[in-house]
Every structure is written in C-alpha cells, then in structure tokens.
Amino acid sequence: MDADSVVRYFRGKNILITGSTGFLGKVLVEKILRVQPAVKKLFLLVRATDDGSAKRRIQTVVTGREILKVLKEKHAYVAGEQEGLIPEKPFVMEKAERRTMKELGLKRAKQFGWPNTYVFTKAMGEMILGHLRGDLPVVIVRPSIITSLLKEPLPGWMEGIRTIDSVIIGYAKQALKFFLVDPNTIMDVIPGDMVVNAMMVAMAAHSEEQAQTIYHVTSSLRNPASYTILQETGHHYFVDNLPRGKNGEPIRLSKMRFFSTVAWLRAYMVIKYKLPLEMLHLVNIVLCGVFSRLYDELSRKYILAVKLIELYAPYTLFKGCFDNMNLERLRMATEQNNDGEHYFDFDPKTIDWDDYFYRVHIPGVLKSLA
C-alpha cells in the first residue's frame, strides 16, 4: 500500500468523528480534508444545548482553530455551515448528573483495577466494539502520551496540557518545585500527526477485512525516550531562552526535584507543607481566625497537590512498554515517499527526541499558553 492508495480510500466516504473538538480529532479532520478534498461528508459529534450552539461550537472550537486556518485559505468549503463539516444532534447532561456520574464512574473503575474513568471507559468502548461488531472491520488504535505535531501541518501545534507539559510549564514559571517521576522511566510519547497518519493508513488497509485489529502507536520499543531527556533538553532550552516574569525580568532557574515513589513524595509534602499548615491552623485558632482565609487557600492547594499525585502516579511511574509489532508490520507494508504530494509517516524511529523537544515541542507548549 502506498500513500496514494490511502488518499483514494477516503474519496467519497462519509465519516463519523466523535472526538472532533479534542486535539487529536482536529488533527484528523484537518488531515482528511487536506489530502482528500473529495471526501463526501464528515459528521462531527459535539455536545451542545441545541443545533445553533452546536454549529457555533464547531465554528469556534474546530474550524476557527489555527490548525484549520491554513486549510480554509485553500479550500473555502471548510466551514461549519458547509458540506465538509456537519454538526450532529446535542447531548445534554445537567451539572449535578455529571458530578454523580463522575463519582460513580471513578468508584467502578477502581473496583475493576483501572486508575480513572478515562482509561476505564476507553477499555469499555473496546469491549463493546469487539462484542457487537458482527462482521464489520474494526481497527483500534491505542496511542501512548500524545504530544505536539512533529511535521504537519503546523510543527509544535497542540491543545491542552499533557502530563509531561506540566513539568515544562512548571519549570518555565519556576512554580513547580517537585514532580512525581522516575527520571530513568520511559515516558512513551508520540507526536499527534504520527497518530493520525497511522489511523488513516490502518483504516484504508483493513477496510475490506472482517476482523478486529489493534495497533499500539507508541515509541517505547522502537525509539524509547526517558524523562531524563525531557529534563536535560528542557534545562538546555530555558538556559538558551531564559524565561521572564510579568514585568519582563529574567526568572532565575533552579533545579526541579524528582521523586521516584509516591511514598517519598508524600513524606516530603508532610514535612515541607503539611506540618507548617497544621501550625498555621493552631495559630489561626489562637488568634481567633485572623489567618482563616490564608489557611483555607493553602489547604485547598495542598489537597489539590495530593489529588494530582494520585492522578499522575499511574502514568509517570509506569514501568511497562507496549508491543507494537502490528504497527511495525503495517509500516513495512506501507510504501513511503518523502517527495510525494502526500506523506503518512508514523515511524517513531525517525524522531530525534532532543531536537524534537528543543525545537518543536517546548516552543509549542509555550506558544499554546501565550
């Protein structure tokens, strides 16, 4: 299979995309429309209160983003009201219902050995597809931590803050003094455009098969990168590009402290923050609540930090790596031509991680915050 075959596959197709308002969804929408303007329709499923708000959300959150602006200049049809993007009916859930569902979902996820509802519901979705697919071809793509675009259409473009980006932002602002991670652990990241390329090639490759195929779009086996690379590259970048405060003054850089176990980090937090907080609580009682506002604010921050530790621990301390032999077979069966009009690269071996983080990802993270 070559790139032209992948492009031809999408010609005249109707495609339903459920996550189009997310980072990866936008990359997929842009790539399909860019390489195959003759796609029949893209149906984008969005949450909204009515048809009007659904259309406005598409225009604001999807077609109005930077990643699609270049495409809009070349193809005027890429607009929420045109045939290329068709908003679906809304799904409404009240605030109290969402909170209850979240609490129940987290309880059920942990009951079955999943750290949170995010990964639990993904697993449930896979199970449902496998159970109900009948004789339909099903391709399941499991990416690892998705990072900013490597090459196209905008290198460094991203939305949302990933786990590793918290380290970058915290270091740039000198606001994050410590982080829960073993520097020698493989972080297993993959640029978003590579994930979309793999998705599109896999769709075309298996469109005529009555089978279920699973792909791990990851880097931990073929081109592993440890958190040490991120630490050293980040330090190098900010030494060369010194961050500045609100008034333009240079921010003095200090080393971030890493903890490789939850137990060590909790002990550190008790000594560094919890004990002083309890002392402030006693002083506040003696002084009849003079420091109540300060105590409440610091307590909220401490509780949030504890919750973040619990949230990040399954990912930053993860010791496994993902088998990607299916993806390797697909890659070897796909003829790549760098000089062609269309290119579907999803080989992590081609990534120079030091160069990617220094020249692409870190600048992209900082730009997304500007």
Provide a descriptive summary of the structure in words.
This protein is mostly helical. Helices cover 51% and strands 9% of the residues. The chain has 13 helices and nine strands. The chain has helices spanning 3-9, 23-35, 51-62, 66-74, 95-111, 117-132, 163-173, 192-205, 227-240, 262-286, 292-316, 325-333, 353-369; strands at 14-17, 41-44, 85-87, 138-143, 145-147, 178-180, 189-191, 212-217, 257-259. The strands form four sheets. Strands 1-2-3 form a three-stranded parallel beta sheet. Strands 4-8 form a two-stranded parallel ribbon.
Summarize the structure.
By secondary structure, the protein is mainly alpha-helical. It has helices at 3-9, 23-35, 51-62, 66-74, 95-111, 117-132, 163-173, 192-205, 227-240, 262-286, 292-316, 325-333, 353-369; strands at residues 14-17, 41-44, 85-87, 138-143, 145-147, 178-180, 189-191, 212-217, 257-259.
β-strand percent reads 5-15%
- Strand count: 9
- Shape call: globular
Overall average pLDDT: 84
| Overall radius of gyration | 23 Å
Q: Strands across the major sheet, in which order? A: 1-2-3
Helix content: 40-55%
Number of helices: 13
CA(first)-CA(last) distance: 41 Å
Oligomer: single chain
